[in-house]
Amino acid sequence: MKIFGKDKSEEKKLDSVAIIMDGNGRWAKARGLDRTMGHKAGAKIVQGILEHLRDLGIHHVTLYAFSTENWKRPKREVDMLMELFYQYLDTVVLKIVKEDESFCMRIIGDKQRLSEKLRNKCIEIEELSAGRPFICNLALNYGGRDDIVNAANSAINDGHTELTEEILSRYIYTSSSPDPDLVIRTGGDFRISNFLLWQIAYSEFIVLDTLWPDLTNEDIDRCIEHFYKRNRRFGGLDPEETNKA
Ligand code: IPE
Ligand code: IPE
Ligand code: MG
User: What average pLDDT values come out for the chain (245 residues) when binned by 10 residues?
Assistant: First the structure.
Protein backbone atom coordinates (compact mmCIF):
# COMPACT_ATOMS: atom_id res chain seq x y z
CA MET A 1 0.00 0.00 0.00
CA LYS A 2 1.71 3.16 -1.18
CA ILE A 3 -0.43 5.85 0.33
CA PHE A 4 2.58 8.04 0.90
CA GLY A 5 4.48 7.63 -2.32
CA LYS A 6 7.76 9.14 -3.25
CA ASP A 7 6.24 12.40 -4.45
CA LYS A 8 4.81 13.17 -1.04
CA SER A 9 8.09 12.28 0.70
CA GLU A 10 9.99 14.63 -1.57
CA GLU A 11 7.43 17.38 -1.13
CA LYS A 12 7.95 17.50 2.65
CA LYS A 13 11.40 15.96 2.67
CA LEU A 14 10.67 12.88 4.74
CA ASP A 15 13.77 10.92 3.85
CA SER A 16 15.27 10.04 7.21
CA VAL A 17 13.46 8.30 10.08
CA ALA A 18 14.92 7.22 13.42
CA ILE A 19 13.23 4.80 15.81
CA ILE A 20 13.76 4.13 19.51
CA MET A 21 12.59 0.53 19.67
CA ASP A 22 11.41 0.45 23.29
CA GLY A 23 9.03 -1.76 25.26
CA ASN A 24 10.28 -5.31 24.67
CA GLY A 25 10.56 -6.05 28.40
CA ARG A 26 7.04 -4.81 29.16
CA TRP A 27 5.67 -6.78 26.19
CA ALA A 28 7.13 -9.97 27.69
CA LYS A 29 6.05 -9.14 31.24
CA ALA A 30 2.45 -8.61 30.11
CA ARG A 31 2.50 -12.18 28.79
CA GLY A 32 4.17 -13.67 31.86
CA LEU A 33 7.32 -14.29 29.82
CA ASP A 34 10.97 -13.65 30.48
CA ARG A 35 12.22 -10.24 29.21
CA THR A 36 14.48 -12.03 26.74
CA MET A 37 11.37 -13.33 24.95
CA GLY A 38 10.38 -9.70 24.40
CA HIS A 39 13.70 -9.01 22.69
CA LYS A 40 13.20 -12.04 20.44
CA ALA A 41 9.70 -10.86 19.52
CA GLY A 42 11.08 -7.37 18.89
CA ALA A 43 13.75 -8.68 16.53
CA LYS A 44 11.10 -10.50 14.49
CA ILE A 45 9.33 -7.31 13.38
CA VAL A 46 12.41 -5.30 12.35
CA GLN A 47 12.65 -6.52 8.76
CA GLY A 48 8.98 -5.87 7.98
CA ILE A 49 9.13 -2.34 9.38
CA LEU A 50 12.29 -1.60 7.40
CA GLU A 51 10.74 -2.86 4.18
CA HIS A 52 7.63 -0.81 4.80
CA LEU A 53 9.64 2.37 5.35
CA ARG A 54 11.57 1.71 2.16
CA ASP A 55 8.32 1.14 0.23
CA LEU A 56 7.21 4.57 1.43
CA GLY A 57 10.20 6.14 -0.33
CA ILE A 58 12.36 6.72 2.76
CA HIS A 59 16.10 6.17 2.19
CA HIS A 60 17.56 6.42 5.70
CA VAL A 61 16.38 4.56 8.80
CA THR A 62 18.26 4.64 12.11
CA LEU A 63 17.28 2.03 14.71
CA TYR A 64 18.24 2.21 18.39
CA ALA A 65 18.98 -1.38 19.45
CA PHE A 66 21.41 -1.03 22.41
CA SER A 67 22.57 2.08 24.24
CA THR A 68 25.87 2.77 25.99
CA GLU A 69 23.79 2.66 29.21
CA ASN A 70 22.16 -0.71 28.49
CA TRP A 71 25.30 -2.46 29.82
CA LYS A 72 23.88 -1.66 33.28
CA ARG A 73 21.28 -4.42 32.82
CA PRO A 74 21.75 -7.88 34.38
CA LYS A 75 24.56 -9.83 32.71
CA ARG A 76 22.14 -12.54 31.63
CA GLU A 77 20.02 -10.07 29.66
CA VAL A 78 23.05 -8.33 28.14
CA ASP A 79 24.60 -11.67 27.12
CA MET A 80 21.33 -12.77 25.54
CA LEU A 81 21.00 -9.48 23.65
CA MET A 82 24.56 -9.72 22.30
CA GLU A 83 23.91 -13.28 21.12
CA LEU A 84 20.62 -12.16 19.56
CA PHE A 85 22.37 -9.31 17.69
CA TYR A 86 24.98 -11.76 16.40
CA GLN A 87 22.40 -14.31 15.27
CA TYR A 88 20.24 -11.63 13.68
CA LEU A 89 23.14 -10.13 11.73
CA ASP A 90 24.50 -13.55 10.75
CA THR A 91 21.20 -14.89 9.45
CA VAL A 92 18.53 -12.30 8.62
CA VAL A 93 20.74 -9.31 7.77
CA LEU A 94 23.40 -11.29 5.90
CA LYS A 95 20.68 -12.85 3.73
CA ILE A 96 19.15 -9.44 2.98
CA VAL A 97 22.44 -7.80 2.03
CA LYS A 98 23.34 -10.76 -0.19
CA GLU A 99 19.99 -10.84 -1.98
CA ASP A 100 19.02 -7.18 -2.08
CA GLU A 101 21.54 -4.93 -3.78
CA SER A 102 19.80 -1.75 -2.66
CA PHE A 103 20.21 -2.43 1.08
CA CYS A 104 23.10 -0.94 3.06
CA MET A 105 23.54 -1.71 6.75
CA ARG A 106 25.82 0.44 8.89
CA ILE A 107 26.37 -0.38 12.55
CA ILE A 108 26.76 2.85 14.50
CA GLY A 109 28.17 3.14 18.02
CA ASP A 110 31.40 2.12 19.70
CA LYS A 111 32.24 -1.32 18.30
CA GLN A 112 35.26 -1.70 20.60
CA ARG A 113 33.17 -2.91 23.53
CA LEU A 114 31.44 -5.57 21.41
CA SER A 115 32.90 -9.08 21.34
CA GLU A 116 35.39 -9.75 18.56
CA LYS A 117 32.92 -12.17 16.96
CA LEU A 118 30.11 -9.59 16.89
CA ARG A 119 32.44 -6.77 15.83
CA ASN A 120 33.74 -8.82 12.90
CA LYS A 121 30.18 -9.68 11.82
CA CYS A 122 29.28 -5.97 11.88
CA ILE A 123 32.31 -5.15 9.73
CA GLU A 124 31.56 -7.99 7.28
CA ILE A 125 28.01 -6.72 6.77
CA GLU A 126 29.10 -3.10 6.39
CA GLU A 127 31.71 -4.05 3.81
CA LEU A 128 29.30 -6.25 1.84
CA SER A 129 26.60 -3.60 1.64
CA ALA A 130 28.62 -0.35 1.39
CA GLY A 131 27.54 2.37 -1.01
CA ARG A 132 23.97 1.22 -1.58
CA PRO A 133 20.99 3.61 -1.64
CA PHE A 134 18.74 2.40 1.20
CA ILE A 135 20.69 2.92 4.43
CA CYS A 136 19.82 1.33 7.75
CA ASN A 137 21.97 2.60 10.63
CA LEU A 138 21.74 0.06 13.44
CA ALA A 139 22.72 1.68 16.74
CA LEU A 140 24.60 -0.91 18.83
CA ASN A 141 26.44 0.28 21.93
CA TYR A 142 25.44 3.75 20.77
CA GLY A 143 25.34 6.88 22.91
CA GLY A 144 24.68 10.39 21.63
CA ARG A 145 27.30 11.88 23.95
CA ASP A 146 29.82 9.22 22.96
CA ASP A 147 29.05 10.00 19.30
CA ILE A 148 29.90 13.70 19.77
CA VAL A 149 33.06 13.06 21.82
CA ASN A 150 34.23 10.40 19.36
CA ALA A 151 33.59 12.74 16.41
CA ALA A 152 35.52 15.57 18.09
CA ASN A 153 38.47 13.31 18.88
CA SER A 154 38.53 11.89 15.34
CA ALA A 155 38.51 15.41 13.89
CA ILE A 156 41.38 16.45 16.19
CA ASN A 157 43.33 13.31 15.23
CA ASP A 158 42.89 14.31 11.58
CA GLY A 159 44.55 17.64 12.32
CA HIS A 160 41.56 19.96 12.76
CA THR A 161 42.42 22.60 15.36
CA GLU A 162 39.05 24.37 15.43
CA LEU A 163 35.75 22.57 15.02
CA THR A 164 32.72 23.88 13.17
CA GLU A 165 29.26 22.31 12.94
CA GLU A 166 30.05 21.31 9.38
CA ILE A 167 33.33 19.60 10.36
CA LEU A 168 31.83 17.77 13.34
CA SER A 169 28.92 16.56 11.19
CA ARG A 170 31.42 14.87 8.89
CA TYR A 171 32.74 12.76 11.79
CA ILE A 172 29.48 11.83 13.45
CA TYR A 173 28.51 8.12 13.21
CA THR A 174 25.56 8.87 10.89
CA SER A 175 27.55 11.07 8.51
CA SER A 176 26.23 9.11 5.50
CA SER A 177 22.63 10.01 6.37
CA PRO A 178 20.78 13.30 6.68
CA ASP A 179 19.57 14.28 10.15
CA PRO A 180 16.31 12.48 10.98
CA ASP A 181 13.19 14.31 9.85
CA LEU A 182 11.15 12.16 12.21
CA VAL A 183 12.00 10.31 15.43
CA ILE A 184 9.51 7.70 16.63
CA ARG A 185 9.70 6.20 20.13
CA THR A 186 7.57 3.20 21.04
CA GLY A 187 6.79 2.25 24.65
CA GLY A 188 5.30 5.57 25.74
CA ASP A 189 8.25 7.34 27.40
CA PHE A 190 8.81 10.98 26.39
CA ARG A 191 12.59 11.00 26.53
CA ILE A 192 15.53 10.65 24.19
CA SER A 193 17.70 8.25 26.29
CA ASN A 194 21.00 9.46 24.78
CA PHE A 195 19.97 8.79 21.16
CA LEU A 196 21.33 10.97 18.31
CA LEU A 197 21.75 14.11 20.43
CA TRP A 198 23.60 16.02 17.72
CA GLN A 199 21.41 14.91 14.82
CA ILE A 200 17.93 15.58 16.25
CA ALA A 201 18.23 19.37 16.62
CA TYR A 202 15.17 19.90 14.38
CA SER A 203 13.62 16.44 14.13
CA GLU A 204 9.90 15.96 14.66
CA PHE A 205 9.23 13.65 17.62
CA ILE A 206 6.37 11.16 17.98
CA VAL A 207 5.88 8.90 21.02
CA LEU A 208 3.62 5.88 20.66
CA ASP A 209 2.26 3.91 23.63
CA THR A 210 2.49 0.77 21.49
CA LEU A 211 5.26 -1.56 22.67
CA TRP A 212 7.89 -2.27 20.01
CA PRO A 213 6.99 -5.94 19.31
CA ASP A 214 3.36 -4.88 18.68
CA LEU A 215 4.22 -2.11 16.18
CA THR A 216 2.50 -2.50 12.81
CA ASN A 217 2.90 -0.94 9.39
CA GLU A 218 -0.36 0.90 10.04
CA ASP A 219 1.19 2.52 13.14
CA ILE A 220 4.05 3.70 10.94
CA ASP A 221 1.55 5.09 8.41
CA ARG A 222 -0.19 7.02 11.19
CA CYS A 223 3.12 8.50 12.36
CA ILE A 224 3.89 9.62 8.83
CA GLU A 225 0.44 11.14 8.50
CA HIS A 226 1.11 13.13 11.70
CA PHE A 227 4.49 14.17 10.36
CA TYR A 228 2.89 15.68 7.28
CA LYS A 229 0.58 17.74 9.51
CA ARG A 230 3.48 19.23 11.46
CA ASN A 231 4.62 22.71 10.60
CA ARG A 232 8.41 22.72 10.44
CA ARG A 233 9.88 26.21 10.71
CA PHE A 234 13.51 25.49 11.66
CA GLY A 235 13.54 28.69 13.70
CA GLY A 236 12.17 30.80 10.84
CA LEU A 237 8.62 31.79 9.97
CA ASP A 238 6.00 30.15 7.78
CA PRO A 239 6.57 31.09 4.11
CA GLU A 240 3.39 33.21 4.00
CA GLU A 241 4.53 35.16 7.10
CA THR A 242 7.98 35.66 5.56
CA ASN A 243 6.40 36.97 2.33
CA LYS A 244 4.28 39.47 4.30
CA ALA A 245 7.28 40.85 6.17
C1 IPE B 1 14.14 -1.97 24.35
O2 IPE B 1 13.23 -2.62 25.17
C3 IPE B 1 15.29 -2.86 23.99
C4 IPE B 1 16.55 -2.47 24.61
C5 IPE B 1 16.77 -1.41 25.33
C6 IPE B 1 17.67 -3.36 24.38
P7 IPE B 1 13.39 -2.65 26.75
O8 IPE B 1 14.17 -3.87 27.13
O9 IPE B 1 13.95 -1.38 27.26
O10 IPE B 1 11.89 -2.81 27.20
P11 IPE B 1 11.19 -2.11 28.43
O12 IPE B 1 11.35 -0.62 28.25
O13 IPE B 1 11.86 -2.61 29.67
O14 IPE B 1 9.76 -2.53 28.32
C1 IPE C 1 16.36 3.19 24.97
O2 IPE C 1 15.57 2.39 25.76
C3 IPE C 1 17.42 2.35 24.30
C4 IPE C 1 16.95 1.44 23.28
C5 IPE C 1 15.74 1.32 22.86
C6 IPE C 1 17.98 0.64 22.70
P7 IPE C 1 15.86 2.19 27.32
O8 IPE C 1 14.81 1.27 27.83
O9 IPE C 1 17.26 1.80 27.54
O10 IPE C 1 15.67 3.68 27.87
P11 IPE C 1 15.33 4.19 29.33
O12 IPE C 1 16.24 3.48 30.29
O13 IPE C 1 13.89 3.85 29.59
O14 IPE C 1 15.56 5.67 29.25
MG1 MG D 1 13.07 0.37 27.82
Answer: 44 89 98 98 98 97 98 98 98 97 98 98 98 98 98 98 98 98 98 98 98 98 97 90 80
Query: All domains of the chain, ordered by start, with CATH?
Result: 16-217 (3.40.1180.10)
Is 187 close to ligand 1, i.e. is its CB under 6 Å away?
yes
**pTM for this model (two decimals):** 0.95
d(CA 111, CA 74): 20
Catalytic center residues: 22, 70
What protein residues have CB closer than 5 angstroms to ion ligand 3? 22
